[in-house]
Amino acid sequence: MGIVNTLRRARRRSGASLRSVASLSGVGAGNLSAIENGHREPTSSTVDRLASTMGIEWVPFHAEGRTPAASAADEITRAENDGRHAQAYRRFLQLADDLASADPVTRVLLSAEPPDDSPSRWLDAIAAVVELRLHEVRAPIPSWVTGYSGQPDAVWEPQRGSRALLLAADREQVPAEFLQRGVAIEQGELHSV
Predict the structure, then answer these.
(1) How many CA atoms lie within 13 A of 103 on its CB side?
(2) Predicted TM-score of the model (pTM)
(3) In whole angstroms, what is the distance from residue 45 CA to residue 47 CA?
(4) Is the predicted pLDDT of residue 185 greater than 80, yes or no?
(5) C-alpha pair distances (Å), 37 with each of 2, 4, 82, 119
(6) For the residues of 93-108, what is the DSSP string, one character each?
(7) What gap in Å lies between CA 26 and CA 172, rounded to an integer?
(8) Closest-CA residue to 33 (of 57, 59, 11, 62)
(9) Whether the predicted pLDDT of 164 surpasses 90
(10) Is-contact 122 159, C-beta < 8 A?
(11) Which of 113, 112, 151, 158 is nearest to 134 (CA)?
(12) Do 127 and 145 meet the contact criterion of CB atoms below 8 Å apart?
């Protein structure tokens, strides 16, 4: 579903309606709806036509089981919306690990696609971890990352489990990329044990 999710995100970001993309690409609107909702698998020619219509170029690379940041953002915000805070937090930590374990080029490729817009502060945290991991290897920062400036004056600390933590994060241990967005996640949390 990675390609399908990427196509759906691209269509939404462009502001194009499902019907207009279907019409321009020669794919039936019902077929496109079924594809976007996971009820039908697209053929490679359908994917090519949809991508061409939306101006998307595919860059194949071996992700070695790592999830792109945009896909992780979908999973994290869905878990948050469903009240599954521990799962959202674990998925965020997995993204941090996925980026940390990748070579510089793969880090950039995993971070290239912007996530869907959402009011979730998790997007500020995702932008922060992407920026942190790309800074570590002196790689370029995608423009979508700098667009998530957060709320530095309204510090947010994610709920990491079914109940909120009694102790607040030590701001001295929070990386600058997180602090500038008002996200309180300590550096030590971002490393696997």
Answers:
(1) 5
(2) 0.79
(3) 5
(4) yes
(5) 12, 9, 19, 22
(6) HHHHHHHHTS-HHHHH
(7) 55
(8) 11
(9) no
(10) no
(11) 112
(12) yes
